[in-house]
Amino acid sequence: MEKIKYIISYVQEILKDEQTGHDFDHASRTATLAETIIKEDRLQVNHFIVAASAYLHDVIDDKVTSDPDRAQQKLQLFLQKIDCTWTEIEAILTIIQNLSFSSEMFAKTKVLSLEGKIVQDADRLEALGAGGILRAAYFSGAHGEALYDESKVPQHFHNKEEYRQPTTMVNHFYEKLFLLPDMMNTDYGKKEGRRRRTFMQEFLQEFYKEW
């Protein structure tokens, strides 16, 4: 689809200097995982909305932009320029504004459409497994966080401000990543999320022995 080609180019440009694990490769894998979920669970969806939202889901996130409002305005103008309908634009923006872990945990978010739930699961699967371990280390390194500190125990956060405070890579596993499989929406997301979490738990056992 021509509009997806334009969207891919847009995301590549926006995320070309991204160095926290939320780069274009992550967006591309999220899109691929979303299609896998659709196929495995035999879901009837708007494939354009799923693909567009998967590719675009981080371009207005405060993890990658210092001005989310301006990034959203820019995105909306771009989507209009490539002839997306207002219905499509609204569907995409609603998904990418409401799929994050922090939005679900600490904000009053809109109920996601089936397309949004699929993209949410795909994005969360990306945070798990072998790739999730590497991305967590990459993110912690980019923010100057330690890999592990025995004196710092994992926290239970009550708001987004607490959640955004510096932690360690290993604590992040307990504070967020290990919670994700139980928050999945789709059958494939739940099954694959549990499989990837088990791998990460086994990794940590080896890590603790080496430490």
Order of helices and strands: HHHHHHHHHHH
Mean pLDDT: 92
Radius of gyration: 17 Å
Cα distance, first to last residue?
A: 49 Å
Shape call: globular
**Can you summarize the main beta sheet?**
none
Number of strands: 0
* Helix/strand class: mainly alpha
The helix fraction, in percent, is 55-70%
In percent, how much strand structure appears in the residues?
under 5%
* CATH architecture annotation: Orthogonal Bundle
Specify the number of helices. 11
Query: Could you name the CATH topology?
Result: Hypothetical protein af1432
Low-confidence stretches: none
Organism: Tetragenococcus koreensis
Domain HD/PDEase: 19-137
InterPro entries: HD/PDEase_dom, HD_domain
Protein name: Metal-dependent phosphohydrolase
Describe the structure.
The chain is mainly α. The chain has a single domain, classed as Hypothetical protein af1432. 64% of the residues lie in helices and 0% in strands. It has 11 helices and no strands. The protein has helices at 2-14, 24-41, 47-56, 68-81, 86-98, 101-106, 114-125, 129-142, 160-163, 169-175, 187-210. It is globular, with a radius of gyration of 17 Å. The mean pLDDT is 92.
Q: In a nutshell, what does this entry contain?
A:
The protein is built from eleven helices and no strands. It has helices spanning about 1-15, 25-40, 45-55, 70-80, 85-100, 100-105, 115-125, 130-140, 160-165, 170-175, 185-210.
